[in-house]
Specification:
With about 375 residues, this protein is an alpha+beta fold. Helix content is about 50%, strand content about 15%. A 7-stranded mixed sheet has the order 5-6-2-1-3-4-7.
Amino acid sequence: MTLSQTLIARARDIAPMVEKQAWNTDRNRFISDEIIDACAEAQLFQILVPKAYGGHELDYTTMASVVFEFARHCTSTAWVISFYIGHNYLHSLWPKEFQDECFRDAPYAFTPGTVAPNFRLTPVDGGYIANGLSQWNSGSSRADWFLNSGLVMVDGQPQGARVLMAPASDVEAIDNWDMAGMRGTSSGDVRMKDVFVPMNRTIDIADLLEGPTPGAKLHANRIYSLPVLPFVLGETMPVMTGAYRGAADAYQRLTEERYSTFTGAKIQDKQTAQIRVGKGLAGAAIGEVLLRDYMQMIDHADPADLKSIAKRAEIRARVGMVSDYVKTGIDELMLGAGGGAYRNTCPLQRFSRDMNVLRVHGFLDTETATENLGRVTLGLEPNCPL
C-alpha cells in the first residue's frame, strides 16, 4: 500500500467518528478536538508540506480523497479539515524564514483565515502594522496562525496588497459564528489592532495568484509553483461532491425506512421515490467524475498553463457550476424526503442547509464566476481578482 493509500484509509477509519459527531458539530458550531487530534495522529495535515520540513509532499489527489471521506458524513468537518491541510500547503509558499518558524515544532500548523483583503497595512521598518476586521475565518476555534490579506496604504492610498500570516496570540478571535448552514465550521470574525507583521510573514498577492512565490523558488516540486486560485478552489471540490454522495446515501436509507403516513405503504415502492434514489446516486457519481477530473488537472497540468487570466476564470466558473449542480441535486432529494427529513437529527437536512450556504460563498457563487468568464472571454476586465 502506498503512503497516499494509507492516509486515505486512515481518513476512512476516522469517518465513523465524524459521522457520529456530525449533529454535535453542527450544534456546537465547531469540530471537536477529538476529531482534529485523530487527524493529526493520522498525519493528515502534512499531506502537502515539503519533505524538507517533515511533510509527506504528496499530491492534491491524496488531499481531496481524504476530505471526500469526511464530506460524506459532515460538510462542516470536511470544510475545516480541507482548509487545515490546504493552508499548510500555503505555508510552503511563504519565505523560508516563515516556513522555518511555522514548521519548527511540527510538520503542520492550524491556520484558519481568508485571502480577502480586509486589513489595512501601514509600511514600517521591517514590515507592516495591520489593522482591521476579517470575516469567514473557518476553523478559528483551533488556531496557531491566522491567514489574512490587506491593502498596503501609503498616504491614504492603496499601493498593492499582501497576504499575511499572524500568530494566534496577535489576533482577537471573535466567537460570533451563527449561521443557517455550515454551522460547525467556527468561521467567526477576527480583529487585529496595531499588530506588527514582519515582512517575512507576508507575500505579494500578485505572486500568490500567479505562482512565482518564494516557496516556488525554494521547493522544486511543481505543485509549489501553481497559481493559488485553482488550488484554493480545489479545497472546496471534495467537500461539495462528498456532500452530494452523503445526501444521496442518506436519501436512500430514508426511503428504505419510511412508510406512508396515510396508507402505511412502503415509500420505496413508489415510483417517484425510486426515480429520486436513482437520480441521487447517478448525480453523486457524476460529481465524483468532476472531482477526479479536477484532481487530474491540479496534479498533472503544467503550472504555466494555469496562469492565464482566461484559464483561471474558466476554472472558477467550472467550480461555481459544480456548487450549483450539487445544491440543485440535493434540493431535489429534499423534495421527496418528507417532513421528517427536516429534523435536526437527520443528516439529509444538514447537507441541504450546508450546500445552500456554500452556493453563495464568494468563490463559489455561480453568477459572479460565470460573469467573470464571460467578461474575460469578451475581452473585458475581470469583475474580481483572479
